[in-house]
């Protein structure tokens, strides 16, 4: 047993290593950790058990027990000298009572926390370790020592990142290249996700804390700045993700690495929902669902590094909250994170000490936006069951008032010089997306009522069309000129695709008098966005390239459908005077499956779309005559066929690459 330590010397302790090497007497000082000789000569004073080979006996056991008490009272010299004081534990399971400074309460449960409480439920009776982060059969079936006093708080052991997993140590890339990729990520990519604190997450800090996080950052950065390295780094990130899952590692850095892994996905990646859910479960085991705002917690330490590390945890939980609610909106699945005190106070969170300029304000705005969406969507979805038009209009006004209030409170704050252009774009873009989504319920109800002869709600129509066109205009006029579309996360691409699909589907459903003016604006916005994306794509497998192809293909599909509808309407007029002549009609799905090779032809000019034919001959979508608009609007299979041909996987909510389209 070689347990080395340095600390105050006791009379029962043997000589230090320095005095023992020269065979001199080791004299302890009264109030110093070093002996007299080491203090006088400024030498390192380390006490260690002797290493004589002998069988274990009574005397040696007593010595070991005495020294172990000494060891527990002072940290090892290797631990205290190898890491800075500001670095805390990494990849370690922690309980819910995480201290504000980053320290963790790892003490054994006392009687008041296990058998001594008044609760009779499972969560109160089972051992504390079994409930928080260590749910194993061994911990569940262990009997707590109710007579054993609870020891004092001890600082968790300090661990560094596994050097064997470090991509630099593994010779995947050189140190200068890694440093450059890391810097590019913090400057160009991090502003879009608002996840890392540039003052805290330096290259050395991240490299020491977690090889998984470092590799995820370098992999995401290499996709944009060094594509040749991306396959290697992406594969290494996959391997580390598998190790994290297999070993059950839980830490702030692990959660951040998983999130970064999902922001800039490969074209065939479909695990985002599962990975985000796993990260949320990990955070719940770490006790983050009980987090309090920084300003409401007493702190044992007030130094800047401790506060930044505490805010790092809070920031990650808020990012997860926004991500969870966004995926719930996109995939129509339930969210996992409920509202807690930290989320409720998010509107003030960005104003606290050591907040990241711009980034934390974006995050606070997004949390408030997602809180609005949760409340409003529950009300908006009730329109499906509500048949009263007056009630629907009142609810629609209420929804838009809430969003307008959010825009009034937040958009003006992003005119500050400390806020970057990408962050201003994100706030406007996400706000327009939510307005489109909420008003789509009212418009859908109005279109359904219009089939029975009712008028279409002009307010809902205007709100939806203006929001969708506004999202596309933000792409081509705001973020496009900055040449930063290449850096946006995948959620921006999904929302852009939704806006374009919505406009095309709306044009198909509307009668002629409402479609004429909207058609030109919608098609122009889609084509301008397609051109903007195509100008900023480096390769054909990037999100920008796939988005550009999809938007152009979508307009071409609409043009083909419109031409087919015009021919069919003319044929219907001719054959109406010749009832004995059979009418040849293609099925709806056959109308969708046009030659995919024609998708790469240049679309016709915008002006040719305005009066080249209509889906309907009347100013209302009511009536007994079946036309393409009514069939097409409500047939999910037709829509999936059209969108798949255009390059969008409807069930997974992601763009398809050319390789996927060919097979």
Secondary structure elements and pairings:
Elements: E1 4-5, H1 17-21, H2 36-40, E2 47-48, H3 58-72, H4 77-82, H5 122-125, H6 128-131, H7 137-140, H8 175-193, H9 203-209, H10 211-225, H11 230-247, H12 252-263, H13 272-285, H14 304-331, H15 341-344, H16 346-349, H17 359-380, H18 389-410, H19 421-450, H20 458-479, H21 490-509, H22 512-534, H23 543-575, H24 588-592, H25 628-634, H26 636-646, E3 648-649, E4 654-655, H27 658-661
Antiparallel strand pairs: 1-2, 3-4
Helix pairs in contact: 8-10, 10-11, 10-12, 12-13, 12-14, 13-14, 14-17, 17-18, 17-19, 18-19, 19-20, 19-21, 20-21, 20-22, 21-22, 21-23, 21-25, 22-23, 23-26
Annotation keywords:
disordered N terminus, 663 residues, two-stranded antiparallel ribbon, mainly alpha, 55% helix, two-stranded antiparallel sheet
